[in-house]
Amino acid sequence: MSTVAVEPSPAAPREPTAPAALLRLDRATRVHGSGPTAVRALDAVSLEVAPGELVAVMGPSGSGKSTLLNLAGCLDTATDGAVVVGGVDVASLDARGRAALRRRHVGFVFQDFNLVPALTAAENVSLPRELDGLGARAARREALDALETVGLADLADRFPDDMSGGQRQRVAIARALVGPRRLLLADEPTGALDSVSGESVMRVLRDRVDAGAAGLLVTHDARHAAWADRTVFLKDGRLVDSTGRPAQADDLLAAAPRTPQEGER
Ligand SMILES: Nc1ncnc2c1ncn2[C@@H]1O[C@H](COP(=O)(O)OP(=O)(O)O)[C@@H](O)[C@H]1O
Ligand SMILES: [Mg+2]
């Protein structure tokens, strides 16, 4: 696979035609605070996710999974190392530039959904498209399609407070899927769902990735990680292991808590 320059030269094409990584972390590190109380939430993690690739992230609570997604989604910046989204080094941008990069490339499913309570399901889903400049009617049509994809067409005009946790989660997924965004980041998107809904959400993500998006999915569920092309494991902010093939549930359960043996990395 070709690599993307960390410092894009003026001559470099902005949208590479080869399937270069949509997301690249190069020894990305995020330290919170300083001095003796500093927390190394992410420690020199290197990772690429190309179009057509779904990567699962597993690891215990506090291992840095959300930090990794926040860096990838341009919601936070690395304190060391590089994060490159769509060929652009995130560190080269100010907050406004990061917001624009995020809006262009990133669909984000937050762990706690982040729906706007005063907006209906359809309004929540159409909001990013209206911010993109799409007209209200077209944005609503897209939102209804996305809600139908996640099985919520009937609840388009309901408010988040009048929905179950699983329904809210599916609204959040629909919101991440609208528009042309090709880097899909999902922080435990199946956490509040029963197993049938969880599988159908994985099917939606998998289809979108097969259609050319790149996906990074935090999950605790080995059955959902099995939908990914590979799985990476975090422990104490470090990438400790990864499977280079579609994982089987047994490998994941065996591999998740341990540190790699000599010669495995
Ligand atoms: N804003 C913050 N300030 C200080 N520490 C943080 C902050 N965000 C995360 N951390 C710490 O970084 C580590 C990784 O957190 P997180 O990425 O949320 O882990 P996970 O999503 O795997 O549970 C944890 O030790 C957490 O307490
Ligand atoms: Mg988390």
From TrEMBL:
<feature type="compositionally biased region" description="Low complexity">
    <location>
        <begin position="245"/>
        <end position="258"/>
    </location>
</feature>
<dbReference type="GO" id="GO:0022857">
    <property type="term" value="F:transmembrane transporter activity"/>
</dbReference>
<feature type="domain" description="ABC transporter">
    <location>
        <begin position="23"/>
        <end position="261"/>
    </location>
</feature>
<dbReference type="InterPro" id="IPR017911">
    <property type="entry name" value="MacB-like_ATP-bd"/>
</dbReference>
<dbReference type="InterPro" id="IPR003439">
    <property type="entry name" value="ABC_transporter-like_ATP-bd"/>
</dbReference>
<protein>
    <submittedName>
        <fullName>Putative ABC transport system ATP-binding protein</fullName>
    </submittedName>
</protein>
<dbReference type="InterPro" id="IPR027417">
    <property type="entry name" value="P-loop_NTPase"/>
</dbReference>
<keyword id="KW-0547">Nucleotide-binding</keyword>
<dbReference type="InterPro" id="IPR015854">
    <property type="entry name" value="ABC_transpr_LolD-like"/>
</dbReference>
<keyword id="KW-0067">ATP-binding</keyword>
<keyword id="KW-0813">Transport</keyword>
<dbReference type="InterPro" id="IPR017871">
    <property type="entry name" value="ABC_transporter-like_CS"/>
</dbReference>
<dbReference type="GO" id="GO:0098796">
    <property type="term" value="C:membrane protein complex"/>
</dbReference>
<dbReference type="GO" id="GO:0016887">
    <property type="term" value="F:ATP hydrolysis activity"/>
</dbReference>
<dbReference type="GO" id="GO:0005886">
    <property type="term" value="C:plasma membrane"/>
</dbReference>
<feature type="region of interest" description="Disordered">
    <location>
        <begin position="245"/>
        <end position="265"/>
    </location>
</feature>
<dbReference type="Pfam" id="PF00005">
    <property type="entry name" value="ABC_tran"/>
</dbReference>
<dbReference type="GO" id="GO:0005524">
    <property type="term" value="F:ATP binding"/>
</dbReference>
<dbReference type="InterPro" id="IPR003593">
    <property type="entry name" value="AAA+_ATPase"/>
</dbReference>
